[in-house]
Amino acid sequence: MGLITTTAAVSCIGLYCCRSAMNLLALGEKDALYLGLNVTRYKSLLLWLVAFAVAMATALCGIIGFVGLVVPHIGRTLFGVDHRYLMPVTGLLGALLLIVADTLSRALFPPLEIPIGIVTSAIGAPFFLYLLWQQKSKSGRLL
Fold first, then answer.
1. Which of 16, 63, 103, 105 is least surrounded by CB atoms within 10 angstroms?
2. What's the structural domain count of the chain?
3. Range of 47's domain?
4. Predicted confidence (pLDDT) at residue 138 exceeds the cutoff of 80
5. Are residues 73 and 142 in the same domain?
């Protein structure tokens, strides 16, 4: 339990400390550089922090599809793009999505328990297709 807590704390604190840099990087690398951000340093730091967090989460919890794709888009839609708010909201929305998916996986066909990955895929795939359709209607072409 100590390993899980330590790795989660290091990842979350490190990423949260980089939230202003992520806001600047969202403007584009050139703009972030013009605003004084050491783009190379922060890109490398963020890459390592994210890779570490994802590797530890996958190793400890397994693969649960679509949560990482769907939840940030829902958070951006509801709360905007500012990472000061988006990061904690995304964590809470991800937890809420997994609680709902776990409840559904246990309650849909008792006494059977559907794997949670199937339920999250059933929730996430239509939402992801909706995002693709919305992108297509905005630009007139897909991606």
1. 63
2. 2
3. 1-62
4. no
5. yes
- Distances in Å between the Cα of 58 and the Cα atoms of 21, 42, 62, 131, 143 are 26, 24, 5, 25, 28
Q: Which single residue is written with the structure tokens 């013009």?
A: 34
State the first-to-last Cα distance of the chain, in angstroms, to the nearest integer. 42
Q: Which tens digits make up the pLDDT trace of 20-70?
A: 999 999 999 999 999 999 999 999 999 999 888 888 877 877 777 678 778
CA distances from 28 to 110, 130, 135, 136 (A): 50, 26, 20, 23
User: Rounded distance, CA 54 to CA 24, Å?
Assistant: 23
What is the C-alpha to C-alpha distance for residues 143 and 119, in angstroms, rounded to an integer?
26
The secondary structure of residue 23, as a DSSP letter, is H
Instruction: Considering only residues 69 and 119, tell me which one the structure prediction assigns the higher pLDDT.
Output: 119
